[in-house]
Structures are given as C-alpha cells and as structure tokens.
Amino acid sequence: MTTKMRSEIAEQPAALRATLDALLPQVEEVRRLGDQTRQLLFIARGTSDNAAVYGRYLVEAHAGRLSALAAPSIATTYKRRLDLDGVLAVAVSQSGRTEEIVETLDWARDCGARTVAITNGGPESPLALAADLALCTVAGEEKAVPATKTYTTQLAAMAVLALGLGADVNAADLDRVPDAVQKLIDDPGDLDALVEGLADKPGVVVSGRGLAFSTALELALKLKEACYLHAMGLSYADLLHGPIAVVDEDTPAILVAAGDGPTLAGTIALAERVTGAGASAFGVGGGNRLAAVSTASLHGPDLPEWAAPMGLIVPGQLLTEALARRLGIDPDAPRGLNKVTQTD
Questions:
Q1: pTM of full prediction above 0.90
Q2: What b/e sequence results for 36-51 when a residue is b if at least 16 CB atoms lie within 10 Å of its CB, and e otherwise?
Q3: What is the pLDDT of residues 26-79, one digit of tens each?
Q4: Which residues are in the SIS domain (predicted)?
Q5: Which residues contact 288 (CB under 8 A, 6 or more apart)?
Q6: 181-326 falls under which CATH superfamily?
C-alpha cells in the first residue's frame, strides 16, 4: 500500500515546477519591497521555521542582507513593541491560517516593517491578506501530516525572494531543480541500508552546516514526527562543541551536505571522525567524496550549493517514510499531531 506521504513526495517535481512558474514573475515586486528595507526578519514555526533557516543563510550568504529568525512570543505573549523600520518581515506558514504567525506579521507591520507572506494557503488565506506581498506556493493539498511538498515549495519561494533581493546566483539553476528532484525520487541511493541501520536505534544525530543546516533540521524533525526517534538536528560546528559525545554505536550520525561549497570538507572530516570512533556515519549528498567515507549514503541533487536544499531533503523524506513503515508506524498520521498547529 502506498502511503499519502510517499505519493506527495512523488508530486514534488510538478509542485516545484508550478511554484517556480508562478513566483518568478514576482521577482520585481520583491525587489521594490527590498529597496525600502535593509534587513529581514523571518516569522515561522515547525517545518516552516526550517525553510526560514534556508532563507536566512541564502539571503545573508548571497544577497548580503542581515537576517534573523523572529521569536513570535515577543509579539503574542510579551506584547513588546520593537522598532522594525527598515525591516522586511517574511512570515512562512503552510496553511496561512496559523493564528500566531498571522498575529506576529500584523505586529511586525504595526512596528514599521514591510511584509511578505509565503504560504500554500492561497491568496485569500489570512496570512496572504495580511501581507504587502504574498508569494503563494502551488503544492496542492497536502494530506499527510509530515510536510514534504509544502516544504520544498517554500524553499523555492525563498529562492525567488533571494533573487528579488539581489542574490548573486544564477537564476537559471532553478530550471534544473524539478528534474534533479525527480532523479532523487527515482534513485535515492542506498535507502535500504539506512533504514536497517536506524531501525534498532533509539536516536540519531543529524548534522549539516551553512545552507545544508536547514536540511539537517528538517530531516531531524521528520524522523521525530514520523518515526518517533530522538533525532537531534545540529550544525556540525555546534556538534563538535560537545554533543558529539552522544554519537556512538547506538547513536549514529546522518551528515548532510551539498555536492560543493565551503562546508563540504568539514562534513567529510566529521564523517571520518564518526566512523573512526566506531559509530555509523550515514551520508546524504556530498557527492562521491562524502559517500566514500560514509557507512552508507543517499544521493544528493546535481545542483549548486545555493539551490541544493530544494533537492537535498528529498532522500531524507524517502528515508523517513520507509523507516516509519519498517517500524510499523503510519507516517501519514503520527500520534499527537494535526496538519495545522495553533499555538498561543
């Protein structure tokens, strides 16, 4: 039986193509807002927060704009007014109906920010209506609780946002994203080995750095949500500052990297350190160099580092779905979770 999650993973090439077709014409609108601002504030929770981490690294590394992740409780619980003049506030919500995110975007506007919404909820969703500009993704309805296609299309929206803010990247790379994702769906790599390597483990560390950090966070979240693993998502810089002590034969590491970029060498060195200590290091992406020093590995996308996260999460999604089934868990409806989460 094919799960909803597996079907929605397969829908991602078409969803990405439709989203990019819809949003790339809005680059000029983003540019006009960007010209009125200096820095960015991302407002999100959960999976959307991981998409915002990608947006932050992308904007800082390639558009030269200082960016930060908002603490929505400052607006909703502490009700503290801040000076947000010159800030572009970007709120991210799959449904566009999470009250806390809508309220925080309203707060940002009242504090002087210009506002952008990234949502799959459509132009009539509360979040889209609250923003100066709505970047509406075209993922279609997502029925499985773990987000897959809504997450990757959020990353596509982040890429469009970065282009509008003057990112020094090749926009033509986006044309390659849907086909690169399809290739990973067709051949994710040694999926069975990773499933069996994690099936009897109580926890796992998932690590990446820079633009791949968002993928590490998102994969850790998926493994927690759908497989009930104690999965810790960390930058490998933070991992080396102490938490690496938890990595042993009962707690493997999943190491995530694009096939190029300045963080690849450090990821390879970390894989060597992990296996040298007798633990398993499972690679995701990183090309042949990471695969060569990993216990087993999943392929990454044939994309430059800036665009790679749009494909890099896909093998991790497939791993999560397959591992959940191996553990006898329904990945479509994890315990205790709903599709839309409301927080106070």
A1: yes
A2: ebeebbbbbbbbbbbb
A3: 999 999 999 999 999 999 999 999 999 999 999 999 999 999 999 999 999 999
A4: 29-171, 194-334
A5: none
A6: Glucose-6-phosphate isomerase like protein; domain 1 (3.40.50.10490)
